[in-house]
Specification:
Elements (H helix, E strand, L loop, with lengths): L1 H12 L2 H8 L5 E7 L6 H18 L2 E2 L2 E9 L4 H13 L5 E4 L3 H14 L3 E3 L14 E3 L4 H11 L7 E7 L2 H16 L3 E8 L7 H10 L3 E5 L5 H10 L8 E5 L19 E4 L8 H13 L7 H20 L9 H8 L3 E4 L2 E5 L6 E13 L2 E13 L7
Parallel strand pairs: 1-3, 1-4, 4-5, 5-6, 7-8, 7-9, 9-10, 10-11
Antiparallel strand pairs: 2-3, 11-14, 12-13, 13-14, 14-15
Bound molecules: 4-hydroxy-3-methoxybenzoate.
The site of 4-hydroxy-3-methoxybenzoate has 14 residues, from helix 7.
Length: 394
């Protein structure tokens, strides 16, 4: 408690950070990776940690003459814990970059620390549009919910879906998904007849699904965070919603590659929109999926893994660009500048870190759950290229 209030005071005064940068004599480059390794979002932590380690195994742990050290911390997806860990990583471990952030509240809780300590914060998972506006030091390699939701609202009315009930987790990304899906569907002549929100922690979908059954819309649109999709799918099928003629459409968070293959054939035909599928047909992705599986007992990478893998790439490339001189680590400002504007081919397809918004510009794919070689996959059937986050106000 005492230590904590000291850190708070130091943060408020903004003094410790300036001193600590000068004190960090050794040239080890440290990345503080804060993830939910236990609790409800543990699969996100597991996927991102595995991807970060794969990136380092493939690209070495020395960059521009700096030894790179990854320090992984478990925040159990509680934002107060995230904030404390971020402070300790900056003050005690003198990390050069903060990274990870499984859920939106964890990413935003860290933003003031990134700003005051001038430490780049690479958001690899969380996906509320406004996160990048919480600090000028935030760079994102995941996605945003507005980015992926709009594509589905364009697809639906062209495919016989006019009335929709929305069901989202009741916090940042869910509210983004609800808003952007609804506005676009209405623009396209469709209608959201009811907007339902379920709590993020320990959600019980049953009473909500019963309401949807009674309302009988053409489709149910769902966003729940990675890890919760299988429960939604199970209860949707158990209630015979599909047999009652209600289609399930969703963001790709629901048909998450981490869980999809265990959802059973009831998931076949579900249409989603998202930025990454393990079935994305490119040579770069095939290589990524194979290497990821080989290093992790056959595990299939999901969209969280790709956010972590690309986040490491953005950090490595920024260090390459800035870290070659003088025997010292580059400043946070120099690193941040070198992260902006990066263009590269990700396993998900071509991506671009917009220098103005520090957010990722990427393709959004429409996909349908199909069986391939006896396993369930999100098979892409259409693409909207180079989508910027529609949620940005400036
Ligand atoms: C968030 C968005 C988290 C999408 C997710 O899974 C997700 C977030 C943990 O911004 O909190 O799939």
């Amino acid at each position: 408690m005492q230590k904590r209030s000291f850190l708070h005071a130091a943060l408020a005064a903004g003094v410790v950070f300036a001193g600590s940068a000068a004190m960090a004599q050794d040239s080890t480059f440290r990345i503080g990776l804060i993830l939910p390794m236990t609790g409800q979002q543990a699969s996100t932590g597991r996927q991102i940690e595995a991807a970060a380690k794969l990136y380092m195994a493939q690209n070495g742990d020395t960059v521009a003459g700096r030894k790179v050290q990854l320090i992984v911390k478990d925040d159990t997806s509680l934002p107060d814990v995230t904030r404390r860990l971020a402070q300790e990583l900056v003050v005690n471990d003198k990390v050069n970059v903060l990274a990870g952030f499984g859920i939106t509240p964890s990413a935003t809780a860290t933003a003031p620390i990134a700003t005051q300590s001038k430490t780049p914060e690479v958001v690899m998972a969380a996906a509320t549009s406004s996160i990048t506006e919480a600090s000028p030091y935030i760079v994102r390699t995941s996605f945003t919910l507005p980015q992926v939701s709009v594509a589905l609202a364009d697809w639906a009315p062209k495919n016989g879906i006019k009335t929709v009930v929305t069901l989202v987790s009741d916090y940042g990304p869910g509210i983004d998904a609800e808003k952007y899906f609804k506005e676009r569907l209405q623009f396209n002549g469709g209608q959201v007849t009811e907007a339902l929100r379920v709590p993020l922690r320990n959600p019980d979908f049953a009473p909500f699904l019963q309401k949807v059954r009674d309302a009988r819309p053409d489709a149910l649109f769902v966003f729940v965070p990675s890890g919760a999709g299988a429960a939604v799918m199970k209860q949707f099928l158990e209630r015979g919603m599909d047999k009652a003629g209600i289609r399930l459409i969703a963001t790709g968070d629901v048909t998450d590659d981490d869980q999809l293959n265990d959802m059973g054939d009831g998931a076949l035909g579900v249409v989603t929109s998202h930025h990454y599928s393990a079935a994305h047909p490119s040579a770069a992705n095939r290589k990524f999926v194979e290497a990821f599986g080989k290093a992790n007992k056959g595990m299939r990478p999901n969209f969280m893994a790709v956010g972590g893998y690309d986040g490491m790439r953005v950090i490595y490339e920024a260090l390459k660009k800035t870290g070659g001189k003088g025997g010292a680590n580059p400043s946070g400002d120099a690193l941040l500048a070198a992260m902006k504007g990066q263009i590269f081919e990700s396993p998900r397809g071509p991506v671009f870190i917009d220098a103005q918004t520090r957010d990722i510009v990427q393709n959004v794919y429409l996909r349908k759950v199909e069986k391939k070689d006896g396993e369930l996959y999100n098979v892409e059937f259409d693409v909207i290229k180079d989508v910027k986050d529609p949620g940005k106000t400036k």
